Amino acid sequence: MAPGRSQRVVITSQTSEQTTMKNDEPFTDGAVETEERRGGLSRRSTLLAVAGMASLAAAPEVAAQPISERSPTADTGRVRLVVNGRQHELDLDTRQSLLDVLRETLDLAGTKKGCNQGACGACTVLLNGRRIVSCLTLAAMHDGAEIRTIEGLETNGELHPLQSAFVEHDGLQCGFCTPGQIMSGLGCIAEGHAGSPEEIRFWMSGNICRCGAYPGIVAAIADAAKRA
Ligand code: FES
Ligand code: FES
Hints:
Blueprint: E1 10-14, E2 19-22, H1 30-37, H2 43-64, E3 76-83, E4 86-93, H3 98-105, E5 124-127, E6 130-133, E7 145-148, H4 161-168, H5 178-190, H6 197-203, H7 214-227
Parallel strand pairs: 3-7
Antiparallel strand pairs: 1-2, 3-4, 5-6, 5-7
Bound molecules: FE2/S2 (inorganic) cluster (2 copies).
One FE2/S2 (inorganic) cluster is lined by residues 172-178, 209-211, 213.
């Protein structure tokens, strides 16, 4: 309490229901100071004390509980995903994008986060065989889905034919967009949209390459489509 501050609180009238105070510092703790000065407990200090005791009592129990055993809160939900052939049962924040779950929960950082708003295609994965930008969808919306990411393409250490074609045709420079280009290219071929360079350019237009490696990307997809 600041020295002399309580002196400025003047009680001008008081009934059993209401206390009216004149204070040159409105909305300060003048009332509290007055009560404390009178030796009583203020409403605020009582509430703070009760809240403090309650949190102290609850804290050790919650802290001692392993995270996996804590009951899901309103913002979490159990989601089953099959990612690159592996089953996962996850308690997720229902607001997490599929991209964030892949990268941060499952440590599959091959899928890239570029714009995080559906404009660049760097985060493309296959969801139940169809290409999708994983930054624009919530993982919780896909319970039971099969996801394939760039990490799931090689077999016994051998690159997927489309990965090899990207290497052969110089379909990359810095490589940041490449996982998304390859996953989208797989979708493009599976959809039957890789019949000509023009068709490939059109159906791959959602995947941006800031290095401008487009001629190699188109050539790689056309080559892999012929071999498929
Ligand atoms: Fe998803 Fe760019 S990061 S579209
Ligand atoms: Fe650099 Fe495409 S290779 S962004």
